[in-house]
Amino acid sequence: MLTLAAFADEIGPELDLQIEHLKKNGVTHFELRGVAGKNVLDFDPAMRREIKTKLSDHGLAVACIGSPIGKVKLNESFDEHMDRFKIAVELAGFFNAPMIRVFSYYPLAGTTRNHLVRHGRAEVVRRMEQKVAYIENHPVIMVHENEADIYGESGRHCLDLLQSINSPKLRAAFDSANFIQCGEDALPQWELLKPFVAHIHVKDALAPTGKNVPAGQGDGHYPEILKDAHGRGYRGFLTLEPHLQVAGRFSGQTGPDLFAVAVQALRQICRQQGIPLAS
What we know:
By secondary structure, the protein is α/β, with parallel strands linked by helices. The chain is built from 10 helices and 14 strands. The chain has an 8-stranded parallel barrel, surrounded by 5 helices. Helix 6 packs parallel to helix 8 (186-193). The longest helix has 17 residues, at 78-94. The N and C termini lie close together (9 Å).
């Protein structure tokens, strides 16, 4: 069976509201990114304890630390960024989360992504290797999300990164909509990356406009991808990140009502494809 998770901050900023609507929609896990307007890496100890206690009291858990690690320019201080990554690793241990979401860096200020691909690849790989080495003895893996403007924007550059690092500690978080919004067909990218996929984000989009829509209503090929993933033995999380109201660089908004629509759209795909979901 596959398990539903969500970026619950898309429902709203307050933890109680997030918990209410995850439970109402039968979603059991958080991809923990934001609460009360604070990013997960900025939770103080009291806030961490409060979140952990409330999740436990409601029978919920954390699937992944939805960190912004790697969403900085390649010439920003790596030492400072590595310190932020260590916080993400600490949080994964605190919340018993098996994964940390990461990205693969923006171009230097005043340059383009093409410049990053041509001249920054070695530094991107070096930074990823250092993070992999740091978590070698931690019970957590990094999952790299494809996204616009970073090194791993395209399927082939995601594949290059994963093959170059060549570690079970770095896997892929597959996001169809992000590929669509970068001008790529999601299905060929799935074929490229599926041996490395350890996490699936559910966010669909229309190819002509890039507008986000519920799963199965866009060009993200979620029925085919989820059927193939399940048939290949994928038994991980399907993390809802619908972006049905607002799609931002560091977060998105969906709201309680549209979140329910997004959940039902995903459930319908799974029913049609014979994919059982954990309840």
